[in-house]
User: Which sequence fits this backbone?
């Protein structure tokens, strides 16, 4: 029996069931820890039970009943749990799997309830559904541990005191509420994929957890094309993980990546999922982004990429979700599609509107196009502007390298 | 649980509403109230007179300070409230979404605080 493995893989699911049975996040967490402690003591000598998960749930439940009975104020609650839990803890395989799945889904919807602040939804989902420790979450989001712990305590307090239910939303509400859940998953993935934290391991874990959540949602809620689109998008983006950063820890642009490092199986799976999502009628932000990612992932070289198609997909994205950041991406695609001057003119337009004064990728994109046009002094100036704004170490190193290259070429030319 | 649903709307906009539209609005309010009463969910509720009727009272250093107007100047004003029984927040939100003023104003959903709730589990 690999205890560590059981702990890592099953804790989230067991916790989800316990929270439903006990109706209390903290009590469930505490009782699960106690059940693990008993298991560590008993299993080596008495042997591992046939169904470790059911054993842990049932042990934690008994511990909770004992705990509540000791306190007169909770006697009624203890009897309630004793009654309902009898039915729930029966180890019938199919039924049990189904119940555990529903419990997980309930927990996800509770943690992502729109009445919780967004940062609390993200933190609570990572802590409760994914089983990531508070320390790890605080490192990933560059927040002191005490602050993150406080955020979790407040969120759990609001779930309890404001009466946020532990329930899968009704079919009328499901669409809206699922959008909220998908956004949390998307934010977790992006924090891992694009985030500013220097800790690569933690960021890798965030991406993995986001994809795992995406799979859970697609598995438990079939026929939700937007959820599929998000899963496809994440798989496709993540398939480039080993090519995005060089052995020296430097950022490698898409067109310069070694495409043999891309994970082909993941690309195939992601592409299939995206296609299925589009067939199912997905039209949202994730579907369009996933279509763009699929075009990139399935192109043999940067040159062979269908840039005009990508530029028009960015148009679609802009219509539904106007954003200057998307405009920057669109301008870059226009430039790649053949017209560097046109792309640059679009970027200069965006710069004039001053909405992106703090966004380092705007001057970086301008610098790249100026470099292609051979306007090196202007390119160098744009890289310097980008460097003043960038905070991510890997990106800063990339920008410095580009600037040095240009300064050298420029110096040699004059 | 009990939830207080605070109904905020723009008094300026409400002032422009025609009598016929007001009548339709009040009728819709009446229906919702009746339906909630039928299910035992309506605890109380009423429209409030406009903020021009408001008086603010403070006691500082034992001295009573009475001023005119509402506590805060805001774009939307408290115009009424419902106090309802609901099993959980989602049920309260569903009721709030059916309040006619939710379509152009804002409903704030606040659970009634229960002392020792944290211990009751």
Assistant:
């Amino acid at each position: 029996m690999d205890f560590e493995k059981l702990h890592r893989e099953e804790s989230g699911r067991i916790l989800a069931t316990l929270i439903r049975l006990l109706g209390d996040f903290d009590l469930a967490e505490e009782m699960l820890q106690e059940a693990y402690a008993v298991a560590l003591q008993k299993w080596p000598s008495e042997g591992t039970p046939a169904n470790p998960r059911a054993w842990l749930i049932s042990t934690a439940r008994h511990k909770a009943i004992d705990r509540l009975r000791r306190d007169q104020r909770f006697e009624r609650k203890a009897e309630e749990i004793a009654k309902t839990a009898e039915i729930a803890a029966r180890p019938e395989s199919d039924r049990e799997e189904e119940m555990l799945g529903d419990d997980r889904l309930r927990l996800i919807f509770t943690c992502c309830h729109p009445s919780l602040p967004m940062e609390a939804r993200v933190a609570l989902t990572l802590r409760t559904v994914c089983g990531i420790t508070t320390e790890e979450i605080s490192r990933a989001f560059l927040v002191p541990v005490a602050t993150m712990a406080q955020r979790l305590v407040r969120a759990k307090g609001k779930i309890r005191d404001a009466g946020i239910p532990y329930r899968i939303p009704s079919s009328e509400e499901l669409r809206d509420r699922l959008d909220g859940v998908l956004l949390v998953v998307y934010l977790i993935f992006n924090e891992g994929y694009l985030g500013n934290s220097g800790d690569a391991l933690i960021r890798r874990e965030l991406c993995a957890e986001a994809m795992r959540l995406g799979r859970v949602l697609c598995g438990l809620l079939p026929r939700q094309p937007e959820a599929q689109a998000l899963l496809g998008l994440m798989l496709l983006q993540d398939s480039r993980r080993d090519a995005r950063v060089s052995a020296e820890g430097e950022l490698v642009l898409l067109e310069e990546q070694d495409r043999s490092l891309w994970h082909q199986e993941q690309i195939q799976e992601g592409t299939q999922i995206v296609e299925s999502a589009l067939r199912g009628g997905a039209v949202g932000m994730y579907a369009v982004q996933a279509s763009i990612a699929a075009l990139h992932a399935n192109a043999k070289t940067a040159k062979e990429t269908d840039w005009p198609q990508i530029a028009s997909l960015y148009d679609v994205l802009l219509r539904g979700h106007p954003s200057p950041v998307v405009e920057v991406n669109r301008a870059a695609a226009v430039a790649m599609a053949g017209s560097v001057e046109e792309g640059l003119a679009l970027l200069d337009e965006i710069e004039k509107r001053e909405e992106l004064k703090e966004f380092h990728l705007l001057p970086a994109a301008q610098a790249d196009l100026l470099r292609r046009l051979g306007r090196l002094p202007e390119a160098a100036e744009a890289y310097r502007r980008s460097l003043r704004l960038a905070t991510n170490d890997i990106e800063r190193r990339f920008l410095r390298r580009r600037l040095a290259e240009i300064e050298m070429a420029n110096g040699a030319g004059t | 649980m009990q939830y207080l649903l605070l109904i905020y709307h723009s008094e300026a906009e409400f002032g422009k509403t025609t009598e016929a539209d007001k009548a339709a609005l009040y009728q819709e309010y009446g229906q919702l109230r009746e339906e909630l009463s039928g299910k035992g969910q309506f605890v109380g509720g009423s429209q409030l007179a406009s903020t021009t009727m408001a008086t603010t009272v403070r006691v500082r250093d034992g001295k009573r300070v009475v001023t005119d107007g509402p506590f805060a100047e805001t774009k939307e004003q408290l115009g009424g409230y419902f106090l309802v029984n609901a099993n959980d927040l989602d049920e309260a939100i569903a009721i709030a979404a059916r309040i006619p003023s939710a379509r152009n104003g804002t409903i704030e959903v606040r659970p009634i605080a229960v002392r020792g709730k944290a211990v009751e589990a």
Chain B touches chain A through 18 residues (CB under 8 Å). The CA atoms of residues 49 and 60 of chain B lie 27 Å apart.
